[in-house]
Design brief:
Blueprint: H1 3-8, E1 15-16, E2 19-26, H2 28-36, E3 53-58, H3 66-83, H4 98-104, E4 105-110, E5 114-115
Antiparallel strand pairs: 1-5, 2-3, 2-4
Amino acid sequence: MSESQVSSGRQGNAEKTIRSAVVVRPRQPFVDWLRSVEELEVPTITLEQLDKTVYLVPDYEDPNDAEKVLRRVSDDIFCRELYGWYTDESMWPKDRSWRVFKAWFDIEHFDVIEDLVAAPLEYE
C-alpha cells in the first residue's frame, strides 16, 4: 500500500485510534467456575470452546503502562466475562482481585489500533 493510498483514504479510514486493546481469553479456573454453576448446564465445556474477547482500553504509549491500565479496567472486564455467561451476580465469585483476574484470564496487549472502517464506531 502506498502512502498516497493511506492519505487519500482509499484503503479505509486508516486512522490510529486513541485507544489500546487487550485480548482476553479465559483460563481453566473460569471453566471450573462455569462447570460449578448448575443452572448453566455446561459440565463438559472446555477451554477450546470459549471465545477470546477484544476490549478497547485507555491508550498508553509506554509499554510499562500496560499493566497499570489493565489493573484499572480489570474488574469491569472480569464482570463482563462473567455476565456473558451468567447474569445472576450472586453466583459470581466474590474474589475478583487482580491476583484472581490474572489466574482466570490470559491477556494479550495491543498498543496500536488502526481503524480501517470509514463509519464511526457503533454501540449496542
